[in-house]
Design brief:
Elements (H helix, E strand, L loop, with lengths): L3 E7 L28 E2 L1 H14 L4 H8 L17 E3 L2 E8 L7 E4 L1 H14 L15 E4 L4 E4 L2 E5 L5 H8 L5 H10 E4 L1 H10 L3 E7 L6 E8 L6 E8 L4 H12 L1 E3 L10 E6 L6
Parallel strand pairs: 5-9, 6-8
Antiparallel strand pairs: 1-12, 1-14, 2-4, 3-12, 4-5, 4-12, 6-9, 7-8, 10-11, 13-14
Length: about 280
C-alpha cells in the first residue's frame, strides 16, 4: 500500500471556517481542539478533492471507487460504501508572519516539525529529520544574526535552521522562487511562542453587505483567514492498491486545488506538490 504526502502552498487567503463565532471574530478559522493550530479537516479536503476530479471529468464510477458511494446510484453494483482513499486533515507547517527584517518570515516550531517528521516516516518519504528547538521562549533559529522582530515581539537569533530541514520542507513548495527564499526566511521559535502567533497573528478581514437602494450597511462581519504563502500538507493513504498514487498524479496534473470557504471572492486556492520518495 502506498502513502502520499501532498504539499499545499496558499496562493490566496484561506478560510477553513467553523461556522461559529469567537469573541469579536464572527467567522474564525477551524482550529485543532487541543493545540488550537489552524487546520483544514479531512472531510473538507475529501470534498475539495472530489469536487476537483468531478470538475475535471473523472467518470462517476471511478469517483465512487475512490471516494465512496456518495454519488452512487441506488442500483449500482460497482460501488461499496467506503472509498479507496484515506485522506487526512491538512496540517499547518509554515505560517507567514510580519517582520521588520524581511517582507515576512516563514514561522514554525519544534512540535510542527516533529509531526511532519512522523508523517514522513509513516509515508516512507525520505530520511530522518533533525530535532531542533530554540533554547528559550525569546530565542529563535533563523538566518542572520542579532534580533528578529516578529509582529510586536522580539527574539534573539541563536543559530540557523539545519539545511536538511529546509530541504525537506522545501519539497512541499511547488514554486522555484519561493523555494529559493525558504533558506533565508525560515524561522523556528519555541512551541509556546508559536502558539501565540497562531492565535493572534492571523489576518482578520471585514466584509459587508450593502442595501441596494441606500448603499448602507445591512450586515457587517469579521472573518479570520490564513494568509497567502501559508504552507500546509496532507497525507493520502489507500484501501486499494494504486488509489493514493492515482489521486496524487491527478493533483500534479491539475496543479491547483480550491479548499475552504469564500471561493466566489477568490479565496481558498492552493498550488500543490507531490513529495518525492527520494526526498532527504
Amino acid at each position: 500500500m502506498t502513502t502520499e504526502i501532498i504539499g499545499l502552498l496558499a496562493e490566496t487567503y484561506i478560510h477553513p471556517g467553523t461556522g461559529q463565532s469567537a469573541g469579536a471574530i464572527d467567522l474564525p478559522v477551524a482550529r485543532e481542539r487541543v493545540t488550537q493550530y489552524p487546520f483544514i479537516p479531512g472531510s473538507s479536503m475529501k470534498g475539495a478533492l472530489l469536487d476537483a476530479v468531478r470538475t475535471d471529468g473523472l467518470d462517476k464510477k471511478e469517483r465512487n471507487k475512490l471516494f465512496g458511494s456518495v454519488e452512487a446510484e441506488s442500483d449500482s453494483k460497482d460501488v461499496t460504501g467506503a472509498g479507496a482513499l484515506l485522506i487526512s486533515d491538512a496540517r499547518l507547517l509554515l505560517l507567514p508572519v510580519r517582520s521588520l527584517t524581511s517582507p515576512y518570515v516563514w514561522l514554525t516550531c519544534p512540535y510542527l516539525i516533529e509531526r511532519f517528521r512522523r508523517d514522513r516516516e509513516r509515508a516512507s518519504k525520505g530520511g530522518a529529520l533533525p530535532k531542533v528547538a530554540p533554547s528559550a521562549d525569546d530565542k529563535a533559529l533563523a538566518a542572520g544574526a542579532g534580533d528578529l522582530f516578529l509582529e510586536e515581539r522580539l527574539f534573539a537569533v541563536e543559530g540557523k535552521p539545519p539545511e536538511e530541514l529546509a530541504a525537506a520542507i522545501g519539497a512541499l513548495i511547488p514554486h522555484d522562487d519561493a523555494h529559493a527564499r525558504l533558506d533565508r526566511q525560515l524561522a523556528i521559535v519555541a512551541d509556546k511562542a508559536f502558539a501565540w502567533f497562531a492565535e493572534y497573528a492571523l489576518p482578520v478581514q471585514a466584509r459587508n453587505v450593502l442595501d441596494e437602494g441606500t448603499k448602507t450597511s445591512k450586515n457587517l462581519w469579521y472573518e479570520e483567514a490564513l494568509p497567502p504563502d501559508t504552507l500546509m500538507y496532507f497525507v493520502v493513504g489507500e484501501r486499494a492498491d494504486g488509489a493514493a498514487g492515482k489521486i496524487a498524479a491527478h493533483l500534479v496534473g491539475r496543479r491547483y486545488l480550491q479548499a475552504g470557504g469564500n471561493a466566489t471572492v477568490g479565496q481558498g486556492w492552493f498550488v500543490v506538490r507531490r513529495v518525492d520518495g527520494a526526498t532527504s
